[in-house]
Design brief:
Elements lengths: L2 E6 L10 H10 L2 E6 L7 H10 L3 E5 L13 H7 L5 E10 L8 H17 L3 E6 L2 H10 L7 E3 L6 H9 L3 E4 L9 H9 L5 E3 L21 H12 L3 H16 L7
Parallel strand pairs: 1-2, 2-3, 3-4, 4-5, 5-6, 6-7, 7-8
């Protein structure tokens, strides 16, 4: 059963200049498609171009919470850019209190604008949260993010945080971190999350899974995430591939998706 990488950055250095080989490795490893995720508006045209050029690559539009001092999108701007048929999500967005300190109200305002855009355009959210789970969930509730739906990407929080996101209709996406020996909390969440709400991702070029840990990550490696989840849950890798692909299609509704 083919896999889908629900979150990667094919426009980033290390992948962009080797794209033909990256795509070939995807085919060789039964990875049928990938969502290339936007992190700022300046580089969004490159993300969109990849989706326009390759039928099994899709794009999102958004500004990552780590990007300070960049073009700040209001909801109207995001909605305008999301009208393109190859754009299937808003984000990645959210809160990150790990890398940046001080008054981060601008992050919270940015997050609210993304949620409002997602609700207006009817496309799901890709949510990043790091050391900010309480505020992330609070803003999601205040802005009625459940109306848009979406995914908690590269999930690293507790089961209680996962439960709160699931209650709002969100999916939980697991990256290569779930394969790390000491990632016990994440393994627990991967076992307990309803299979119909599970997605798999690489977050490439970051967070390569075992057995490639420490190397440049790529979408082809998403199969190792699927293998770990299958092992944790006592089911076949084929079932994980089938169910997570179905989940991806149900959440993002990609047009003319080629399996």
């Amino acid at each position: 059963m083919p896999f889908i990488d629900s979150h990667c950055h094919l426009d980033f250095p290390g992948l962009a200049e080797n794209l033909p080989d990256v795509l070939a490795q995807m085919r060789h490893n039964d990875v049928a498609g990938a969502l290339c995720v936007s992190v700022n508006l300046a580089e969004f045209p490159q993300v969109l171009a990849l989706a326009e050029q390759h039928p099994n690559i899709y794009a999102s539009v958004g500004v990552h919470p780590d990007y300070e001092g960049v073009e700040e999108p209001d909801a109207a701007r995001l909605v305008e850019l999301a009208r393109h048929s190859r754009v299937i999500a808003i984000g990645e967005t959210g809160l990150d209190y790990f890398r940046l300190k001080g008054d981060l109200e601008w992050q919270r305002t940015r997050f609210r604008n993304h949620i409002r855009a997602a609700r207006e355009c009817g496309k799901p959210l890709i949510v990043h949260t790091r050391e900010a789970a309480a505020d992330t969930l609070r803003i999601m509730a205040e802005e009625n993010a459940a109306e848009a739906g979406g995914v908690m990407h590269c999930f690293t929080e507790t089961w209680e945080v996962a439960e709160a996101a699931l209650a709002m209709g969100f999916y939980i996406s697991f990256s290569g971190i779930v394969t790390f020996k000491n990632a016990k909390q994440i393994k627990d969440v991967a076992q307990r999350t309803p299979l119909e709400r599970v997605l798999i991702e690489t977050d490439a070029p970051y967070l390569a899974p075992v057995p490639h840990r420490g190397k440049l990550n790529q979408p082809a490696y998403v199969k190792h995430v699927a293998e770990e989840i299958a092992s944790l849950r006592g089911i076949s890798v084929d079932e994980v591939g089938r169910r997570t692909t179905e989940n991806f299609e149900r959440l993002f509704k990609p047009e003319k998706f080629e399996k």
